[in-house]
Amino acid sequence: MIAIGLGLTLSWGAALAQMPTKGSPEHIKAVTSAVDGASIKANTATSNDWPTIGLDYAETRFSKLNQINADNVKKLGLVWSYPLESSRGVEATPVVVDGIMYQTASWSVVHAIDARTGKRLWTYDPKIDRTKGYKGCCDVVNRGVALWKGKVFVGVYDGRLIALDAVTGRVAWEKDTLIDKEHSYTITGAPRVFNGKVVIGNGGAEYGARGYVTAYDAETGNQAWRWFTVPGDPSKPFEDESMAAAAKTWDPAGKYWINGGGGTAWDTITFDPDLNLVYIGTGNGSPWNRDVRSPSGGDNLYLASLVALNADTGKYVWHYQETPGDHWDYTSTQPMILADLTMDGTPRKVILHAPKNGFFFVVDRTNGKFISAKNFVDVNWATGYDANGRPIEVKEARGKEPYDSIPGPYGAHNWHPMSFNPQTGLVYLPAQNIPVNLTPEKTFKHNAQAPGKFASAAGWNLGFMLNATPPKSPAFGRLVAWDPVKQKEAWRAEYVAPWNGGTLTTAGNLVFQGTADGRFIAYNATTGEKLWETPVGSGVVAAASTYMVDAKQYVSIAVGWGGVFGIAARATELQSPGTVYTFALDGNAPPPAFVKYQTEGLLAGIKYDPKDVEEGTALYVTACAQCHGVPGVDRGGNVRNLGYVSRETVENLKDFVFKGPFHDQGMPDFTGKLTEADVVKIQAFIQGTADAIRPK
């Protein structure tokens, strides 16, 4: 017996000696190489790791961990913080396997972090040409990575898909995903990996792009398949039967293919391994105004739709169009969740979806059949959906007069992830309204710059004038707990502003969400009672993840204010650099220093001719409003508001507008698009607006 015991002790000691040190290259290789479809499915039972962007293939963002729970969450404290060294939007959820974290920052920079210590393992900068930052509508953001068999996959802002060695960060392969260089395509979404294929979509519908998704072999980078979301030039052969069918729903008189058609699949991609289907959410029309792109009407497939594709071949299987003939930038690219629910006494495999248009959808994911839809915020473009799943539209919403679209193009729900807790039966949804008035353009020409045509100097093509008539609807932001079976709100939490972060829910009866005003909050998932909060130094737009490391539960959130709304507006006086915060019970690490937002006070002292203000207004809308907001009215986001910069800056505005010092940070060069005389008029508008709002 002594001999046997001694032998077991020696064997166990030898085994321990052979185990790699946690956080070592050998350990990282072992745990990341093990990530595949089987391990992701196995992790669903425990939630010990967070191996994919939405936690599991269903993208529920529901963790079964309950070490941190509604009874003890008040003891949550900071364990470590990590600097992302970024000043623009941070939208990615941390991906974590056995304490090895992968996080992206703005400009598609990837960070590998030891979650046990908060120390950097490596970083990878794809070296984007930052002078091309203006080619994206919505900040130079990235929504995260995919992990598969020892590789980290990241979609890069300039259209590349890159596979990195998970241990070293070195490039394993790189592919240019763009079909042409004439249009302003970008990638901001997270890739997904299914069955050994990396699937990625692109953005760019505001600029006249044609949407598509592409699958690449995860090992080699070779293209496996590609599916376009809208038809191309009808004078040329269609790529497949689905494109031929779609073309029948577009009016060729609008020559939609010149302006791309839109439909870009810039975010949500979800997978059902049992059905072997990939689900794609498609984007808005290009231009937004259907009367321009398809004058005689039509549904314009497959805009604003959920589409199911065969995961192996990319072949179209079914679609459900949430906004037929999209006219309001009502994308369906918002994150979807797969769930098994009992509806009217019948078990159903469903997709839960809350797109921009303000309705919460439940759709059968086996066949795309409509089950139900109910508005989760007030809407004014439709009164509901009929039994066939078509919206009952309000006639005025497609009229020729200015329309205060509710929700506006920012959406009742944008890209910010929602989560589903099967224990409560509730979906936790960041909801909002950001007022925008749409006035149809009287004449439209692709890529034509014109005074008052929003962001046209940067290449936008909308078919609408924005806020030519001031909107009247109220702005709001809230967290909504939604019952998808009853199609009814269970509870809500109101916020001071829109553009709040994504959600995480857990078996500890908790919901976590970051806010636009710089807090990270935990709620009781059943009742909505606020249980804990902490300041995080900046507005939050991303969603958190949670995971176990050495038998202890952690919660991590990446903070960095930005996105299309956060470029120009904010709800906090802080503007701290991008940071990952990690919390656990009884954590007591000191927070990093918070940085106060810098302003120079309301602009004064610029001499101008009041006669120039009107023309300056139109020029400002054309070139500046997209990023800088309204001078003095908005307060600036991650780009400064020109009503609160120094007098010297505005006096020397031409030195910034023409190949200026911020050109390599993404600011457009307006050489050839504006004249020095135009700049003088813009100066008049900036100072005139500041004077108009100055307290008497």
Q: Could you provide a short overview of the structure?
A:
With about 700 residues, the chain is α+β, with helices and mostly antiparallel strands.
Mean pLDDT: 95
Largest sheet data: 5 strands, mixed
By DSSP, the count of extended strands is 40
Q: Termini, distance in Å?
A: 94 Å
Instruction: Tell me the name of the CATH homologous superfamily of the domain at 22-143 and 501-597.
Output: Quinoprotein alcohol dehydrogenase-like superfamily
Rg (CA only): 25 Å
Strand order of the biggest β-sheet: 1-34-35-36-37
From the 3D structure, determine the CATH topology of the domain at 22-143 and 501-597. Methanol Dehydrogenase, Chain A
Features:
single chain, 696 residues, alpha+beta, Methanol Dehydrogenase, Chain A, Cytochrome Bc1 Complex, Chain D, domain 2, five-stranded mixed sheet, four-stranded antiparallel sheet, 11 helices, 40 strands, globular
Describe the structure.
- The chain is of the alpha+beta class and 696 residues long.
- Among the domains are: 219 residues, Quinoprotein alcohol dehydrogenase-like superfamily (Methanol Dehydrogenase, Chain A, 8 Propeller), CATH 2.140.10.10; 84 residues, Orthogonal Bundle (Cytochrome Bc1 Complex, Chain D, domain 2).
- It is 13% helix and 30% strand.
- The protein has eleven helices and 40 strands.
- A five-stranded mixed beta sheet has the order 1-34-35-36-37, with no helix packed on it.
- Strand 32 and strand 33 form a beta hairpin.
- Helix 7 packs across helix 11.
- The longest helix has 18 residues.
- It is globular, with a radius of gyration of 25 Å.
- The N and C termini lie far apart (94 Å).
- The relative contact order is 0.11.
- About 1% of the residues have low confidence.
- Keywords: Calcium, Disulfide bond, Heme, Iron, Metal-binding, Oxidoreductase, PQQ, Signal.
- One of its GO terms (cellular component) is membrane.
- Its EC number is 1.1.2.-.
- Belongs to the bacterial PQQ dehydrogenase family.
- It comes from Bradyrhizobium australiense.
